[in-house]
Design brief:
WH-like_DNA-bd_sf, alpha+beta, 3-stranded antiparallel beta sheet, about 60% helix, Arc Repressor Mutant, subunit A
Length: about 120
């Protein structure tokens, strides 16, 4: 299924939503959670994930914390207060887009997306 362009356009929303639900996560954990939630249909590469995480951090939407775990250094990402506000905005934007696409693809159907 996964179209890289569609995923890239939704990646920030995916990251923000996962961090809203999980408080803090590290990069690999994010990729695995997406894979798990989508039954392997969406696979996020590190090459796409880390630039998106760094951009969200630069925009003040994420904060980071370094932790030592089993002789490994992990960088955990969490939402800032601005990031928490941005989750709702991004989800509303995505929902509106999906509804618009549904009207184009199935003009006779009334969308019931239940985000």
């Amino acid at each position: 299924m996964s179209s890289n362009a569609l995923i890239k356009g939704s990646l920030q929303t995916i990251i923000l939503k996962l961090l809203e639900e999980n408080e803090k996560m590290y990069g690999y954990e994010i990729t695995q959670k997406v894979k798990e939630l989508t039954a392997g249909e969406i696979k996020i590469t590190e090459g796409a994930l880390y630039p998106a995480l760094h951009k969200l951090e630069a925009e003040g939407l994420l904060t980071t914390e370094i932790q030592q775990v089993d002789n490994r250094v992990r960088k955990y990402y969490s939402l800032t207060k601005d990031g928490q506000k941005e989750v709702s905005s991004k989800l509303a934007e995505l929902q509106s887009f999906v509804e618009s696409m549904q009207r184009i693809i199935n003009p006779g159907l009334k969308p019931d997306l239940g985000f």
